[in-house]
């Protein structure tokens, strides 16, 4: 039987500098060295073993929908929501109600918001 660990998420982005700035400011991710190539792809660290790779594709069409998202957990969702409000970033529940959270059937609270390319990010309190 094979075992796996999650390594990274890769997203195509229109403007890699703008995307890096967004993820550094909003999620406070640290930029790390792209050890794979000398390309303009930039890597950010989600933690010691997980990475977000932002691949510049300025001429590509980026299609998104909320069902395609990545999720991060925090022990203090309310504080993060207040941080988004300070940044004037709207968030929503799954149905799209602006500035409203959602409590799943299993008791996990979650919100969704979008990055500059329209990718959906879920933040929840499932820690």
UniProtKB/TrEMBL annotation:
PANTHER family documented for this protein: GLYOXALASE_BLEOMYCIN RESISTANCE PROTEIN_DIOXYGENASE (PTHR36113:SF1), LYASE, PUTATIVE-RELATED-RELATED (PTHR36113)
Source organism (scientific name): Polaribacter pectinis
Name assigned to this protein: VOC family protein
Residue intervals of the VOC domain: 5-126
Domain of life: Bacteria
InterPro entries: Fosfomycin_Res_Enzymes, Glyas_Bleomycin-R_OHBP_Dase, Glyas_Fos-R_dOase_dom, VOC_core
């Amino acid at each position: 039987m094979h075992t796996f660990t999650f390594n990274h998420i890769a997203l195509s982005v229109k403007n890699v500098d703008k995307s890096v700035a967004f993820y550094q400011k909003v999620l406070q991710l640290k930029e790390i060295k792209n050890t794979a190539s000398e390309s303009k792809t930039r890597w950010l660290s989600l933690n010691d073993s997980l990475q977000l790779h932002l691949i510049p594709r300025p001429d590509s069409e980026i299609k998104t929908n909320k069902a395609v998202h990545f999720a991060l957990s925090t022990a203090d969702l309310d504080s993060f929501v207040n941080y988004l409000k300070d940044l004037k970033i709207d968030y929503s529940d799954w149905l799209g109600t602006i500035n409203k959270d959602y409590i799943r059937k299993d008791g996990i609270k979650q919100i969704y918001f979008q990055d500059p390319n329209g990718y959906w990010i879920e933040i929840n309190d499932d820690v």
